Amino acid sequence: MAHTFFATTVRGMEDVSAREVSSIIGRRAEPDVGKVFFQAGLEDIPRVNYLSRTVHKVALMLLRERFETLRDVYEAARSVDYATVIRPDQSFAVRAERVGVHPFTSVDVASTVGQAVIDSYMASRGVRLRVNLEEPDVELLCLVRHDELLLGVNTTGESLHRRGYRVWSHPAAISTTLASSMLLLSGWNPGDGLLDPMCGGATIPVEAALMASGYPPGEFRLRGRGFAFTRLRFIDPAWLEELRSEASNSNIGSEIPYYNLRAPKKDPAVLEVASSTYKSRKVIVTEKSEPIYEILFTSYKKTKDIEENDVMELESMDLGFEIRAMPVSHSVPGAVGYIVEGDTTIAYTGDFRFHGRDGHLTENFFKKVKELASVLIIEGTRVSREEDEYVSEEDVYNNIVRVMEESKNLVVITIPKRDLDRFQTVLRATEKCGKELVLMPNQAFIYYTVGKVTGEDLLKNVEIMKKLASNSCIWEEIMLEELDKEPLHPFKMAKNLENYVLCLSYYDMRYLLDINPQGGTYIYSASEAYGEEDVFDFLRLWNWLKHFNFDVYGFKVIGENEVKFDKGFHASGHASGEEIAKVIDYVDPDYIIPVHTNKREWFVEEFGNKVVLDEKVSL
Prior knowledge:
Elements: E1 3-9, H1 14-25, E2 29-32, E3 35-40, H2 44-51, E4 55-66, H3 70-78, E5 91-99, H4 106-125, E6 130-131, E7 138-145, E8 148-154, H5 176-186, H6 203-213, H7 218-222, H8 237-249, E9 258-265, E10 267-280, E11 283-285, H9 290-296, E12 311-313, E13 322-327, E14 336-341, E15 346-348, H10 359-372, E16 375-379, H11 393-406, E17 411-414, H12 420-432, E18 436-439, H13 441-454, E19 462-464, H14 474-483, H15 490-495, E20 500-503, H16 512-515, E21 520-524, H17 532-547, E22 550-553, E23 555-558, E24 562-565, H18 577-587, E25 591-595, H19 600-607
Helix pairs in contact: 3-4, 5-6, 9-13, 11-12
C-alpha cells in the first residue's frame, strides 16, 4: 500500500533531493519549497532514512490543508485518527516550524496541535495520551508555511544532516546534506579527482569519500542517535536489518563506477543530466573468464548494466608497458599482486599472506618479483600490531573442531563473509564433527557467486536457512533454483539443534529468535575490534548470546565494557612483520615503498635508506 511522505531538505536543493529520493524508492518524487513529496510503502521508511545523503527529515504525512486561523489548525488536526500511529501506552510530542507572517508563534502551533491530538484520541479510544517533550515515543512534525498546514509522523528523529562522524566542528563548516547536494549537482563521480579550493571542515571531501565507498550515511546514525522509526508500531525491525544486509553483502560488482552523460541546458555554463541511463566506465579484467562476464552482465536485483564492450582483458591492452597480474593468498578470493615492467620494473604486493590453501601462490609471486623488480611497493598492515601472535588457518581449524566436539547443542559461528578459506575451514570442521553447516542466504550467495567463477560447487554440502521475517530477493530465488535447494525451515532446525552449525553475522543474530535455542555454543572467528564503536557492537552481541545462555569462544566481556579476544580462532589475511622482513630480504629490492600501514618507521628501522617515504617519487 502506498502512503504519502514529505521530506525536508536544503532550500534551493529540492530538485537534487527529489532525484535522489526517486533513485532510492524507484518512484517519482516531487520537489517543493524546502521539501520533497513522494509516494512509497512503509518499508521504504528505513530505506530513505538509511540511504539518503541530501534530506533532513522524513515524515509520514497525516494532513495537508489550507488554514486561516489557529482554530482552523485545531479542527484540521483533530480530524486525524492517531490510533494508527500511536499506541495508547506511548507518549508523543509536537514539533512545529513556521514560515510567514502570522498572529501566533510556532509554540502556539505546537500547543494547539498537541491539544487536538489529545482530544481526538480521547474521543476515539477513550485514552488520554501522555505528552513527553524530552524523549517522546512518537514525534509529530508540524510545518506551517504561510497558509499551508502539513502534519506528519517524524520517522527520522534528529535531522539527518547530523551524521555523527565529526570529531571537530569547523566554525564555518557547511552542512553534510548541502555538501552531498553540491557533489550530486556538480556531476562529480567516484573515481574522478576532486578539488575543494575552499576546504575548511573537509565536509565536501568526506561526503565524497562516503559516496565513493558506497558507505550508507545512516550507518553512523545506528551507532549513535538512532532513528525515530525504530520506535514506531507500524515499522518492522526486520526491514532495516534486511536493508543493511543487502547494502553490505549483496553488492557483487558494486565497486565498478558509473557516470551520467551530461550536456549544457539553458545556461551553457551549467551541465545537467542528458540521459537517465547510467554509463559504465571502462573495466579491465586480469584474465578472460566467461563466468566472470556472466556475473558482470547479469542483474540479480535493481542494478545498473555494464556494457560488454566496456570490458577488456589486460593482455590485450597496449599501455606502453607490460603489467603482470599474479594471484596471491589473502583472506578474500581474487587477491592479486602486480608487476609493472618498463624502464624501471615495479612490483606491488596488494594484501597477502603465506598460509591458507593458496599460500603457494604468494611464494610464486615473490619468486617472479625477485627475478624482475627493483622497486617493491609492499603492504605492512600487521607490522603495527604489538605482540602479534602467529595463527595459521590450520590452527583455526583445530581449535574450532575442539570446541564443536565438546558441544552437545547448537553451534553458532561468526566468520568474515568474504573469507573463502575460513568458510571451507568451518565446513571441514563441521563435517569432521558429524554436523551440518547452515548459512544465511546473503552469505551463501557470496560463495555461490565465487563458485560460478571457479567452477566449484561450494554449497554442495551446505544448508541455506529460510528467513521467516521477509520475502526472498530475486538473487536468492535464482541461487536456490540453480542449486536445486529448498531452504531449511527454522522450525525443522529447532527439532534437532545439536545437529547443526549455524553461521551468523553480528547483524543476523535476530534470526536466533526463529529457532529459540535454550543454550548452545558460540564461536567468534573473525577480526578483533579496533575502535570504540566496534567495542559497542561486541557488547550488544554479548547480550544476545547471554540471553540464549550460550558458551562463548573467541571473545569475552570483562566487567561492564572491556572486550578481550581469544587467540587461535582467527587467522589474519595479512603477512606478519617477521614474514614481511623475510620476504624483503629475499627479494632484495633497490627501493621499498611501504603502504597500508601506520608504522612506516618500522621499515626505516629494518631497511634504512632503501625505504622511500616521500609522497611523490621519481624513479
